[in-house]
Amino acid sequence: MLNPVLVVARKETIDSLRDTRSIVSSLMYALMGPAVVFMVSMAVRVDGVLIGMMSVFTLVAAFAGGMNVAMDTIAGERERRSLLPLLMNPVRRRDILMGKWLAVSLFSMAGLVLNLAGFAIVFARAGTHLPLLAVVAGILPLALLAAAIQLLISTICRAVKEAQTYLSMLVFLPMGLGLFQVFFPAARGWFAFLPVMGQQWQLERWMKGGAAAFGPAATLGCFTAALALLVLEVAANRLHRDEIVYGN
Q1: pLDDT attached to residue 187
Q2: DSSP codes, the chain
Q3: pLDDT at position 106, please?
Q4: pLDDT score, position 182
Q5: I need a surface site. Which of 48, 58, 141, 219 has the fewest CB within 10 A?
Q6: From CA 163, how far away is CA 117, in angstroms rounded?
């Protein structure tokens, strides 16, 4: 018997791939940062501020990659009245949500990987290379957290337009935190292990040629993944509420 989580994930992924406009939009978000940094680097020296801006674009790419999928996978189905028939199937609602989360995470991670690949090419000109293992352990879990938060917001919204408003505002969270750290750098301490802020700190350090310690990156990644699971648990509990099931 097929795993219901994988069945839902496959269905959501195939449906999302049919929406070419959303895919193009996500690609533009993912590649916007490398393109801007490349053009600026051709004219000026790559300094700390430019590296900080690069890290902000990376954080935004993690949240923008799966945004269109997240707003449609629950809020869109509520609007189309197709969520209730799905929830009436003899499948645990946590499994349904996990399948949707895997689909959204796939697109979020794809956007993040494209962004990092673009920056790797740009900074290779300066002889700087991203540490692959540390990136996988510390940076990629941010896409899992972004997908979980977006799904939670999508369960709250009643229609796609409402979800689009809130999810677009969510993108300003990593952007705001990132820009604050770029222009007002604080003492880097325990918050280096906080999701979003920790990922930016790691990226800035690596791009400046700092040591790529696997331990701190893995700790940050584990904490980020744990927070994503906690957010998913909250979202799964919301699927048991009457206003979610009946759309009231």
Answers
A1: 47
A2: ---HHHHHHHHHHHHHHT-HHHHHHHHHHHHHHHHHHHHHHHHS---HHHHHHHHHHHHHHHHHTTHHHHIIIIIIHHHTT-HHHHHTSSS-HHHHHHHHHHHHHHHHHHHHHHHHHHHHHHHHTTT----HHHHHHHTTHHHHHHHHHHHHHHHH-SSHHHHHHHHHHHHHHHHHHHHHHHHS----SGGGGSTTHHHHHHHHHHHTT----HHHHHHHHHHHHHHHHHHHHHHHHHTTSHHHHS--
A3: 92
A4: 67
A5: 48
A6: 29
The pLDDT score that the predictor gives to residue 177 is 76
Predicted local confidence at residue 41, as pLDDT: 55
pLDDT of residue 6: 81
Residue owning tokens 């690596």: 206
Residues of the chain below pLDDT 50: 43, 187
Contact predicate 225/232, CB 8 Å: no
What are the tokens at 217?
């990156």
Give the separation between CA 93 and CA 72, rounded to whole angstroms: 17
- Contact between 114 and 22 (Cβ < 8 Å): no
- For the residues of 128-173, what is the DSSP string, one character each? ----HHHHHHHTTHHHHHHHHHHHHHHHH-SSHHHHHHHHHHHHHH
pTM: 0.82
Q: What pLDDT, on the 0 to 100 scale, is given for residue 208?
A: 73
Domain ranges of the chain: 4-245
